[in-house]
Amino acid sequence: MRKMDIASDPRLTYVLLILVIAVPILTHAVLPVPVTDTTRAVYDFIENLPPSSLVVVSFDYSTSTVPELQPQATIVAQHLFLRPLKILFVAQWIDGPALTDAVLEAIDRGNKIYGTDYATLGYIPNTATLIGMTADIQSFFPVDTLGNPTQNLPIIKQFPATRQAALVITFVAGEPGLSAYLQYWESRLNIPVAAGSVAALAPGFMPFYNSQQIIGILISIRAAAEYEFLEHAQYSQVPIGLSGATSAMVAQSTSHMLIVLMVVVGNVAYFVRRRGKERSK
Amino acid sequence: MKTLTSKEKRKMTKAEIILQIIIFSLGFFYAIVYYVRLPVPVLGTGNLQSAADQLFTYLTAILTGAFAIGIINLTRAHANNVKNRRPIWKYSVILLASMYFMAVASIIASPFSLDPQSTVIPKGVYAVFFSIWQFLYYNVLVSINATLFSLLAFFIASAAYRAFKARSLETSILLAAGLLVIIGQAPISNLIWPGFGTIRDWIMAFPNTAGQRGILIGAALGILAFSVRRLIRYPWGR
Amino acid sequence: MYYRGAAVIEGSQAKAGVATSSDGIHWTKTAVLTMPAGSSGWDAYSRQVDALNIGGVMRSDNTYIMSYASIKSRNSPAQIGLASSSDGISWTPYPDNPVVTYGTSGGWDSGSGGVGAGNFAGSMILAARNQYYVYYAAQDPSGTFTIGVATLPLSIYPISQTTSTTSSSTVTSTVTSTVSTTSETSIIQQTTTTTTPVPQPFVLGSILPSLMIGRISQATLLVITLGGIFAVTRFASKRKLKTRGIPGIERLDNWIRQAGELGRPVFFTPGTGTIQTPDTLAALALLDHVASRCAQNGVRLIVANADFNVHQVTADIVKNAYKKAGREDLYTQDTVQYISVRQFAYAAGVMGLLRREKPALNVFVGDFQAEALEIAEAGRADAIAQFGGTSNVDQLPFFMATCDQTLVGEELFTAEGYLTDDPQTISKLVGPDAGKVIAILLIAAGAILVTLGNQVLTTLLRL
User: Fold this and answer.
1) How far is CA B88 from CA B78, C26, C344, in A?
2) Do the Cβ atoms of B229 and C428 come closer than 8 Å?
3) Structural domain boundaries enclosing C223
4) Which of A201, A279, C117, C379 gives 20 to 30 Å between its CA and that of C327?
5) pLDDT tens-digit readout, B53-103
6) How many angstroms separate the CA atoms of C280 and C284, rounded?
7) C261 within a domain of the structure (yes/no)
8) How far is it, in rounded angstroms, from Cα C111 to Cα A52?
9) CB B9 within 8 A of CB B229
10) Which candidate, A254, A195, A248, places its Cα nearest to that of A71?
């Protein structure tokens, strides 16, 4: 009997994987997710920000990591818009401004007015701008992404420099990203930093969280699901499923278990084969 | 016993000596700027640090200028493909067409080109280009990028199946640690037993971080020695 | 007298102590104040770092009452709490702390936004008219300081009101007295605007604040490490040393020769880093070797680039290598290709190349991001061997799972030493090991010291 050896024909694996991921997402399955400390730290920090604080949101990822980070950005932006805060959107990656617009369209902006309560400044092209905007936003961003001169925006009049920010949260998939904010904003000016990161980079950021250089990390799409539950518990008008993260959690669980199963089966098969060879010797 | 061809130290030509001096001075300058944080005013630019940052911006700008060379190179290579009808010439056509169309559409559809009087770019043209650009960006570019990134999931599955074989003690430990982290990462495991999450956190925070830091320190030292060697004597004319 | 001081070392926290004097001019420090450790709560961070931002102390009979400021986490604004003590040295916090908290949005005491706002910078407490009055300074969003007062019922710490250690400044009549709740009112307006710092004349003495210590110690460490590396290098170059060798480097030449025998090309890519990335420079050094070996064996080489500057350099390197071996016929327009600077466009281009050209040997060295696994898996199908190397720890596991030989981190940078038996270059391998010894000693010392509670090394090496 010809056994279907997975190693020589990966297509079976791929088909199983597709099924195991697609079904939960298409059926909008929901799974309660326990909240980790790193996510809760971010949520509590934003929740406890004094009214009228400035929050800078930085989009440091591109279209390829949208499935992982866009849910985080969506749900955190929704939280920021529910709180009485002032928000500035910037980006260190080229795709950032377009992704910012996508997030802003997905959430309920309530009665916040563009220009007074929030503004999108756009792309930060180099380190000089990143450092300079902590002293003077206008000279580095003469216009915002919509073409309005920043000197006319009430939010810029209220916060002419990002040095006064109460929090900068960066959604990061690589460099430039978190290290720039840590280097120039956190260590020099003590501006608190939070990070929403892809799974691959999160272990590298944990030391910063352990030493309290960043106040919290949102790790991959799972943190978006956790955040969504936290937010829904407090603000029931936020629907579960706004970020799409919860059904992704089910898909993540099933796909992880499939891989574990495959590895175990593969090892069992390997041992059986080896035992058979030893016995035949 | 192999020896590499022409590794003998040879005298540097005058041009190479000048270049080496420039390289060394710039490297030394940036090292000084990093370690010596004195607010020394320099040439009216504020202080040493901002002068260094500005200089770095200029140097990076020079590098970015080569972007144009990249486009010219691509155009030439793929136009050649089409001209000589090489097997993949149809894809070269698609590449050139999409590259130039996207560039033009982005320029026209950019908000910075929005002309209030609509004299240069009529509003109708802008609207058409903007909607096409939006379609291409969100429906084509974002989708393709996400698809290619998702391919990783399949490759990880087949790579994991191949790599996680308990052949020796070390691979068995790798297998056990890997399985525990994968299980701990799946949200459902926390409903089965919360300990999985704790184990995963411990593995990631301690053995994993320690190992990564060891590699990082080694790599940093390697980079240090490598770079200092380059600053002192670049291997010219290999 | 109660006073608050801080050590000069950067990062240390303020503590409070007691000093006594008989003449009011010469003081002797007698004790440091202590507070029981807390966990999470309004003063979590202050307790954790054992800081005490003492405000004012008053005494009545045998009870001392203090107002102090504390912060919840490292970057949150301060709030004010009370504590009581019977001996003036060890204090117990008031159970319902904080008593004065953040002000309303935009108001006179809401702080100028976030950190370092100096909210509730100082405080003072006294008792009068059946109430406790806590005076404090707070900032509004524009940075103006104002003095305010909060009132608390006397019942929280019942005392007789006859004594007070603070001065005789009388409470003005603009204070509104409420009975059972705390109220916060602004009574004194003081317009001190925060100005931009006046440029100081450059005095060396003023430059060595605690901020510099981190840099100085780091610079010293760098000099010591470099000295160690080069001393060991010189030592090693005088002796015949045997390296353990990385088998893969020796196998690299064999694989190239095999590719020649099979008539199949060799594929090389320096990754997605820019010309400034150290990994890319090391990859170019390796490319030089690979290109010359390919030229000598008459093997076709294909190089795919993601950065246009790297592309220029690789084209140069490969062309020279082929010219030196007299095999310019092998250098075609396909030899060095520029794919795309976008990460996954590059990955797709490389995967397509690998599937079409079916190279016998794939060399992936340099700086890689997520595309590493994709191109390595795609190349695995047809190649007889794969050779990878990067210092990016996130991608190393993928290389190790798909490549027959991987250069891990520093091996990529010292690879040129393995390519020869020349003692000069071997000594370059050994050099960085000196730095590793220093690093190991520092880590061990730091771990031991921190376990024993000593923060010397961490504060010395903090940037």
Assistant:
1) 9, 91, 20
2) yes
3) 209-239+426-460
4) C379
5) 888 888 888 888 878 888 888 899 899 999 998 888 999 999 999 999 888
6) 6
7) yes
8) 10
9) no
10) A248
Judged by a CB distance cut-off of 8 A, whether residue B137 touches chain A is: yes
Report CB contact under 8 Å: A64, C370.
yes
What's the mean pLDDT in B177-195? Answer: 87
Same domain for C9 and C154, yes or no, is yes
C440 occurs within a structural domain: yes
Whole-number Cα distances in Å, A280 to A1, B122, B139, B166: 19, 82, 58, 21
Q: Which of A63, A145, A260 sits opposite B145 (nearest CB)?
A: A63
Q: Using CB atoms, pick whichever of A50, A174, A201 lies closest to residue C105.
A: A50
| DSSP reduced 3-state for B189 | helix
How distant is the alpha carbon of residue C67 from its chain centre? 34
C216 and C111 within one domain: no
Query: Do C175 and C223 fall into the same domain?
Result: no
Reported pTM:
0.68
Distances (CA, A) of B104 to A138, B129, B130, B133, C360: 29, 9, 11, 10, 41
- Cβ proximity of C119 and C102 under 8 Å: yes
- Pair (C19, C85) in one structural domain: yes
Instruction: State the Cα–Cα distance between residues C404 and C250, nearest whole angstrom.
Output: 13
Nearest to B50 by CA among B60, B39, B59, B63: B39
Q: How far does C141 lie from chain A, in Å, by closest CA?
A: 9
C267 and C282 in a single domain? The answer is: yes
Cβ contact (<8 Å) for C370 and B152?
yes
pLDDT, one tens digit per residue, over C90-139 is 777 777 777 776 655 556 666 544 433 344 556 777 777 777 777 776 66
- Within 10 Å of residue B62's Cβ, how many Cβ atoms? 9
Instruction: Write out the H or E segment, with its range, that includes residue C351.
Output: helix C343-357
Q: How far apart are CA B72 and CA B66, in angstroms?
A: 10
Kindly state the helix (H) or strand (E) to which residue C83 belongs, with its residue range: strand C79-85
- Name the DSSP class of C115: T
In A27-170, alpha helices (H): 37-47, 66-82, 96-106, 127-132, 137-140, 154-158
Interface probe, candidates A4, A63, A268, chain B, greatest B C-beta count within 10 A: A63
Q: How far apart are CA C130 and CA C179, in angstroms?
A: 9
CB neighbour list of residue C26: distance below 8 Å, 6 or more residues apart: none
Hey, where are the domains in chain B? 14-65, 79-156, 164-222
How far is the C-alpha of C196 from the C-alpha of C49, rounded, in Å? 31
Taking CA–CA distances from C376, the nearest residue in chain B reads B155
CATH topology of domain A37-240: Rossmann fold (3.40.50)
Q: What is the ipTM of this complex?
A: 0.86
Instruction: For residues C364 and C447, state if they share a domain.
Output: no
The sheet carrying C92-93 orders its strands as C53-60, C63-70, C79-85, C92-93
In total, the C-beta contacts within 8 angstroms joining chain B to chain C are: 147
Q: Do C44 and C171 reside in the same domain of the chain?
A: yes
Strand partners, C17: C3, C32
How distant, in Å, are the alpha carbons of C4, C55, C58, C89 from that of C17?
A: 6, 12, 15, 8
The pair of structure tokens assigned to B67 is 């972007």
**A259, A264, A268, A273: best mutation site toward chain B, by most B Cβ within 10 Å?**
A259
Q: Which chain B residue has its CA at the smallest distance from A65's CA? A: B146
Do C165 and C29 lie in a common domain?
yes
